[in-house]
Amino acid sequence: MAEHNELGEIGEQLAIDYLLDKGYKICERNYRYLKAEVDIIAQKENTLIAVEVKTRTSNYFGNPEDFVTKKKIKLLVSAIDFYVTKRNLDVNVRFDIIAITLEKNTHKLEHLEDAFLYF
């Protein structure tokens, strides 16, 4: 497995552990719709949360959340729209980013709720 794939899997597991600890229910992991992949779909109360996880080994080229593109946002929105419609869910929807920087034997995790409001 490529090193960047392993890094992504480590980051996603850290994000899932964090969300579970905060009381979120994990509904899906790596949900695919057409060309979109939603890293994590979680739920807390009546809110469905699409979580994009970005993991980096340093902030040298920018913060992890800076790598979520407008194209990626459009894909995530379409995937979640399909997910909600297909399951006939009556929920609020939110898009979050969990930005993780892994450094040596530690990590920094930042949870940006309603992240697309900032784009």
TrEMBL record:
NCBIfam families: PRK12497.1-3 (NF009150). HAMAP family: UPF0102. InterPro entries: Restrct_endonuc-II-like, tRNA_endonuc-like_dom_sf, UPF0102_YraN-like. This is UPF0102 protein BTO13_10300. Belongs to the UPF0102 family. It comes from Polaribacter gangjinensis. One of its GO terms (molecular function) is nucleic acid binding. It comes from the Bacteria. It holds the Pfam family UPF0102.
